[in-house]
From TrEMBL:
Organism: Ruminococcus bovis
InterPro entries: Transposase-related, Transposase_IS66_central
Protein name, per record: IS66 family transposase
Domain Transposase IS66 central as annotated: residue spans: 18-209
UniProt xrefs under NCBIfam families: transpos_IS66 (NF033517)
Length: 209
């Protein structure tokens, strides 16, 4: 007489062929990107608890899980974003310690794209690029037709006829506020900078209302 063997259905692994669990990968990502604990510190902390898990393995888990599970969500969000009428765009410097192309520290850029305050869907997406070339925004926003709300970077004006660049009043107001500091208090109210600042404040009041 044979004894039947019943197998418990196995859950689909977060990474095929790996013993990584969704909870483990989520914890490592949270520690790295939210708590700002680098992988070498996580490696040391796990070792103190008797867990042998190298930073290279953790790095591979992050990369593979991001590719399999997060990139499709990211691309779907990008599809929704470019259907909007208004998109906010900005780019900021980011120091990269080491890359294959350049082993010494260098300056790269993190590009940011997000929906406006009037949008029903709140979407914020980051796009890492090694430079500030406007082709980066052009490629990311392919298919978009509407208003680009940005700072004074002239590159946005080279995007093409599908894009209408609109300026940022926060950046504009800042310059008038700085100019006002150079004027005596008695002359500020009637100065060009003072009148401009008051105009900006009125716009802000309307927006807040």
């Amino acid at each position: 007489m044979e004894t039947p063997i019943v197998k418990t259905p196995q859950e689909k692994p977060v990474i095929k062929g790996s013993f990584a669990s969704p909870e483990a990968v989520a914890h490592i990502m949270t520690q790295k990107f939210v708590i700002y604990s680098p992988l070498y510190r996580q490696e040391q902390d796990l070792k103190r608890q008797g867990v042998e898990l190298t930073r290279q393995t953790m790095s591979n888990w992050i990369l593979k899980a991001s590719q399999l599970w997060l990139e499709p969500i990211y691309e779907k969000l990008r599809e929704l974003l470019i259907k909007e009428e208004v998109i906010h765009a900005d780019e900021t410097t980011l120091q990269v310690l080491k890359t294959k192309e350049k082993p010494t520290p260098k300056k790269a850029y993190m590009w940011l794209y997000r929906t406006s305050g009037c949008s029903e869907k709140n979407i914020v997406l980051y796009d890492y690029k090694p430079n500030r070339k406007i082709e980066n925004a052009e490629n990311f926003l392919e298919g978009f037709n509407g208003y680009i709300h940005a700072d004074g970077y002239q590159g946005y004006h080279k995007l093409g006829d599908n894009f209408t660049v609109v300026g940022c009043w926060a950046h504009c107001r800042r310059k008038f506020a700085e100019a006002l500091e150079m004027i005596s208090k008695d002359e500020r109210a009637n100065s060009t900078a003072g009148i401009a600042l008051d105009y900006c404040n009125q716009l802000y009041a309307i927006e807040k209302k």
